[in-house]
Design brief:
The complex is a heterodimer of chains A (223) and B (157). Chain A has 223 residues and is of the alpha+beta class. Chain A contains seven helices and five strands, in the order αααααβββββαα. In chain A, strands 1-2-3-4-5 form a five-stranded antiparallel β-sheet. The radius of gyration of chain A is 19 Å and the shape is globular. Chain A starts with a helix and ends in a 10-residue tail after the last helix. Chain B is an alpha+beta fold. Chain B contains five helices and nine strands, in the order βββββααβαββαβα. In chain B, strands 1-7-8-5-2-6-9 form a seven-stranded antiparallel β-sheet. In chain B, strands 3-4 form a two-stranded antiparallel sheet. In chain B, α3 packs antiparallel against α4. Classes of the chains: A alpha+beta (223), B alpha+beta (157). Chains A and B meet through β1, β2, β3, β4 and β5 of A and β3 and α4 of B.
Chain lengths: 223, 157
């Protein structure tokens, strides 16, 4: 490890997160006039958020702390992104399956590995990761998935079950862009769309989203 | 020399950067649809109007030998990373999928001095997500993990 790297790790850590800002402050809610089912789901989800919102429990640091905008090396930048993502995840870890969380951390280490980074690769956008965390809490998928980063820097999720494929791009503000291919007998179905998170299951309903999200063979694990 | 279309029974090889390779438990299982997406304009380049690839059979008809040659050719012009992969795509299937989506995709050999097997895949609708997912699902005959391929090739030259 070089001396500059040592100095980096010894410096006071400045988080990119604002401890006074709720993780879920920007959650997009369905507009008035949605169905009773969507409203009930939204209420349940909001209740989970209220119980997990740690705004009051995180003591704000001194007022002098500011997120620096200095130019950092690639290694430092990827480290910051990885650390921020894991910190955000740890704040809601009690609601995530342990194996899911461990697998997520491994995936993050892989997709944000400086050794595997191309100069023109887009950096993972933290607002996209926020959407992903809310997706994880809301949908609770337990089937192994693949993680990637889109050309716009948004987190990509992918499931392949047999020949069937579902890919979802996590856009900021709880918007999801999805595309799937599903084979039913000899018939091939494909569809794509862009929806708010709270509408995802309803929109994917005709294609049986549990086919991708649920791994019925997975053993229950403790959190 | 005018660009020549690749024969339908042949393949092109698309370099997929690590962030767009789908892995489960470390094993390569495919590519994200974005691996075939035309990139929008950025500060350093214009919006793409075609995707780049290499003609596999221009090098060798044997897949492994062909990929070796493609890796060599690509490494002359760009840095390859261990987590990258190569998608071997069937020309005929690519064009069939395009037609099913109302697009006449053209797969053209457009050699350059540095890349003699250079291939351009043109006439793809840049906003068609289903096209990209269908390509990832049906047109790829093999996704080659670069790190594993290099280890295997070096072990059995």
């Amino acid at each position: 490890m070089t001396s500059s790297s040592l100095q980096f790790y010894r410096r006071e850590k400045v988080s990119g997160l604002d401890p006074a800002q709720s993780l879920f402050a920007t959650l997009a809610l369905p507009r008035a006039g949605v169905s009773d089912t969507a409203s009930a789901l939204s209420d349940s989800f909001l209740e989970i958020l209220r119980r997990t919102d740690t705004t009051g429990r995180i003591q704000p640091r001194s007022a002098s702390i500011e997120v620096t905008t200095r130019k950092t090396s690639l290694v430092e930048t990827l480290y910051e992104i990885r650390a921020n993502a894991k910190l955000m995840t740890s704040r809601v870890a009690m609601h995530l399956d342990k194996e899911w969380r461990l697998s997520l951390f491994r995936n993050l280490d892989e997709i944000l590995d400086p050794e595997a980074w191309h100069d023109d690769d887009p950096l993972l956008a933290i607002p996209s990761f926020e959407t992903f965390l809310r997706f994880s809490l809301f949908i609770k998928p337990n089937r192994q998935l693949s993680l990637g980063v889109s050309n716009q820097g948004n987190l990509l999720l992918g499931w392949i079950v047999g020949k069937d494929r579902l890919s979802i791009e996590m856009l900021p503000q709880d918007v999801l862009r999805w595309v799937l291919v599903r084979y039913v007998g000899d018939e091939r179905e494909s569809a794509a769309g862009q929806v708010p998170l709270l509408r995802l299951m309803a929109v994917l309903g005709p294609f049986d989203p549990e086919h991708w999200f649920a791994d019925h063979g997975a053993a229950a694990t403790s959190r | 020399m005018a660009p020549q279309p690749l024969p339908d029974e042949h393949h092109f090889v698309r370099h997929v950067r690590g962030a767009l390779v789908q892995r489960v438990n470390g094993k390569v299982v495919g590519c994200f649809p974005d691996a075939f997406k035309l990139r929008d304009a950025s500060e350093t380049r214009a919006a793409e109007t075609y995707i780049s690839a290499c003609w596999l059979e221009w090098h060798q008809h044997d897949c492994d030998l062909g990929i070796q040659s493609v890796v060599q050719e690509l490494s002359n012009g760009r840095e390859l990373k261990a987590r990258d992969a190569f998608a071997v795509v069937q020309v005929k299937k690519m064009k069939e999928i395009g037609l099913s989506r109302g697009q006449r995709i053209r797969v053209l050999h457009e050699p350059t001095e540095k890349s003699p097997s250079y291939t351009a895949v043109r006439a793809m609708n840049r906003d068609d997500q289903e096209l990209l997912q269908l390509i990832a699902a049906e047109a790829i005959s093999e996704t080659v993990d670069l790190e594993s391929f290099v280890k295997t090739t070096l072990k059995h030259p």
